[in-house]
Structures are given as structure tokens and as C-alpha cells.
Amino acid sequence: MTLSKLVIRNITRRRGRFVFTLMGITIGIASFVTFLSMGGSLKSEINRESAALGANLIVTPIGSCAYEQVSILTGEILPSNITMDEVAKIRAIRGLSAVPVLTEKSAVANKPVSVNGVDVAAMKAFKGWEIAKGAYFSGPDESAAVVGSAAAELFKLDTGSTITVRGESIPVKGVLKETGGRDDVTVFLPLPLAQRLYKASNKVSYLAVKVDNLALTDRYVEQIREATNLGVVSDKQMLKSVLSIVGTVNITLQMIASVSVLAAAFGIVNTMLTATYERKREIGILQALGATQRTIFTIFLLESGFYGIIGGATGVVLGLLVSITAAPYISQNAFTSFVKGSGVGAMIDLKTVVGSILFSAVVAILAGVYPAWRAARLSPVEAISYE
Predict the structure, then answer these.
(1) Cα(49)–Cα(185) distance, rounded to whole angstroms?
(2) Buried b / exposed e across 35-66, counting CB within 10 Å, b at 16+?
(3) Is the CB of residue 311 less than 8 Å from the CB of residue 264?
(4) How many domains does the structure of the chain reveal?
(5) What is the pLDDT of residues 225-263, one digit of tens each?
(6) What's the domain range around 380?
């Protein structure tokens, strides 16, 4: 009998114990993979959204915290505390272009959607939008909507369709070409219309600012602060802050999941120690047939590793299935938007799959070291005479 067949026969001889031990490591790895995959490619997702924002500076109300910065990238609602007078003062500064944005929420077909009120001419030039269907706004006083490509597909909107915002029917005038950012899932309204519908007269949520000379960024920041007493953060500062927050949350969740993997490891230790006592006679016979301590140690270590590999593989599959199933039901907020936005493609990552299985195998092997050492330490006489 080959070593591999002997290992498989040994761990499956007690099928109930085998199944429950395997379930322990499977559930542990599944929870680990669930948190990891639901986080998706958070770093790349945040970087993508920051790039899609297209701004060198972000102007927010004074005292805004990192949560507001996360909300800007995810399209969540922000307090509307910046006045149009302050917008005018910022736009009067030479060497920069500033676009005000009012961020709100609405619902289409009972599903939430981000609504942005924008300076229609300035925003199109700022982001370089192109129209896939229909036409763009003809002016700031128009009562119409332009929707992102993903929003149009999700809600089955086309030119001529209507959406209801705050009880008012708004015709869809155009659909944007795909941008690769949050603009794809957003409904855009002319700023005056959005301010009227959301009772935010003369107010906006934030300003996206581009500067002509990046070397003078610090000077522009000071000029904006002096002119308006508003908060200003650079795109790099905002990116660093958001990555720090979301990264910490993601690591914390993974550490919590690792506890369940550790608990499963103790289950393997218990199973293998029990097997050591039950198979003393078998160990003695193997020693009598010429098996060395190293061979006995290897057999038990391989058995633990087998639990880790099989449990890891089934845990990865279960974890990914839970992630895909649970993601649509996560309550939408500034932090979970990144999780939901990272998509299924980010969840099914080869590195995640291989890394999780290897992690499971390593944990299982480490859990089996002590039982394997105990088995290898048995003397032939003690082992073969065991009843």
C-alpha cells in the first residue's frame, strides 16, 4: 500500500469524525474568504474611483472628516453647506477650474441611485464626458436628466424614458459612455434643478478643482482657504486617508475570520491526538515492519495536511458562494459601496483562491505537528502491546 493510500484510508476510517473535522476547517476558511472576497480589490477600486473623480483638489465644508472624503468617492449623500457665493470666490482664483456638485439620493424601480446636481457645461469639460445615446444638456435651466451607462442598463432607461425625483417626473435626455467610475451608476441633473428638488437653494456639497500648475498646488490651497474658509484636501491626501480607513476595516474583518480558522486548527489537533491513541497498535506494527520515526511523523503530518487542503478548497468555494449571494443584500453606505462596487470579478481572484488553500494547509500542518511528534515518539514495544 502506498503512503498516499494509507493516509486517505486512515483519515476516512472514522467517517463521522472526518466529516466534522473537515467542516470545522471548511467553515473557518469560508468565513476568511468571505470577508476577503467581499472586500474585493479595495485598493484598486478606491484608486480607480479617485482617478475617475479627475480632481487635483477637493473643497469641502470646514471640519469635514475622512468619512466625507469616502462619501465623495462612493457617491453618498453629503451635507450641502457650501454656498454659491463661496463657489464664485473660488472660481475667481486664477489658475484653477472648479466644478460644484450637489450629491443626493433617489430611487428608480425601488432601488437606490445616486443623484448629482452639476454645472452642466463645466462638468462635461472637466471630465470629458461623451454621449452614447441621445444628447447632453442644452443649458443649465433645462429640466432633464443624463444617466450613466450602468444606471441606464440596470434600470432599463433610454432616451425618452422618465424617472421620478422627489415626486417630479424628469425625462432622460441622454446616456453617457462608460467612464469606469461612479459616474456610470449616477443620475445627473442640472444644478439649479437639483437644488430646487432637494430644497438646497444656493448650496452645494463639494467642489472638484483642477489646477493649471501642480507645482503651485499648496499656493492654491492657501488661496482657497483665505477666500472662503473652507476645507481643502488634495487628491493624494484624500486617497491616503480613504485607503487607510477602509484598509484597516478590511484587515480587522480578516483577523476576526482568522480566529475561526484557529479554532478549526484545535479541532484538527484533537482529532489527530485521538487517532494517535487509537492507532498505537498499528503504529507498533509499522515500526516492526521497518517504519522509522520519520516515516510515522510524515504519515500523521500528511493526514493533517490533507484536512487542510480539502477543507481549504471546500472553504474557498463556500466562501465565494456566500460572498456572491450576500453582496446584493449589504446595506448601502459609504464603506460598503466599495465592497459592492468591486464586483464578482474581483471576488474570484486566483491569488485569493490559492493563498487561502495554502493558508489552510499550513495551519492544518502546524496543528498536526504535536500529534505527529507524539506518534513518532512511541516505542515499538509500547505501541505493539497496546490493547
Answers:
(1) 12
(2) bbbbbbbbeebbebbbebbbbbbbbbbeebeb
(3) yes
(4) 2
(5) 888 888 888 777 777 767 776 677 777 777 877 787 888
(6) 3-43+246-384
